[in-house]
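Please fill in the sequence for the structure shown.

STRUCTURE ENCODING:
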């Protein structure tokens, strides 16, 4: 049995399974909409890019290092 046959059989299994779904298609649509909202909409409005705003261009790594050291020193006191 060659690799091509195995890949085709796996593809056919999933393709026929999704094709014959009724309720599952709606559930997948709801899941995809929720993932879109979580990863795109919430990121745009609630999670600003702090590193891009505060670090000079090309110095992002050193900015993160300074912030980690500052926070570690503040919590150890």
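FILLED IN BY: designer on duty
SEQUENCE:
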């Amino acid at each position: 049995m060659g690799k091509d046959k195995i890949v085709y059989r796996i593809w056919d299994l999933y393709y026929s399974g999704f094709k014959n779904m009724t309720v599952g298609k709606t559930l997948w649509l709801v899941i995809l909409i929720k993932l879109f909202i979580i990863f795109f909409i919430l990121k745009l409005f609630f999670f600003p890019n702090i590193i891009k705003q505060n670090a000079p261009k090309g110095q992002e790594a050193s900015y993160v290092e300074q912030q980690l050291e500052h926070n570690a020193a503040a919590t150890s006191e």
